[in-house]
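Reopening this one. Same input as before:
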Amino acid sequence: MARAITRQVGMAASADTPDRAQPQRDYRKAMSDNIAYALLVYTGLQIFVTMRALEGTKGSLLPYVALIVLVAAIIPGCRRFERRWEWLSGEAARAAETGVGPAPDLADMFARDRMLLWALAIGLPLVLTALFRGLAALV
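Same output, byte for byte:
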């Protein structure tokens, strides 16, 4: 409790001095940035992993189908993540970072969503490409 009060007082003191004021984090923008970077990583992984799968197959369209399906399927999922954070007002989005204000528990939600987003962006191309390679081996 004393630590939280000290933290709040320290932030109030630093906010009073304009030359020492630090910009506050906006969770809406931070999640949007994470989604953009995750989409780049996801698409890059998908392309390179799928291209590896293409080397092993002769004339099969299955890797191309996998690429199209996976890139098209991830966009609505990422949009859903982004929509979860659009409802925040500017004040709530910035107050969550300081731990003061209407929703200080947003930091935990943000960390969870960011971890899930990156796990999906990195893991999904690998898992689904392995699945499609398994299907190609059966055919």
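So the earlier flakiness isn't reproducible anymore. For the record, Helices lie at 2-16, 27-56, 62-86, 90-98, 106-138.
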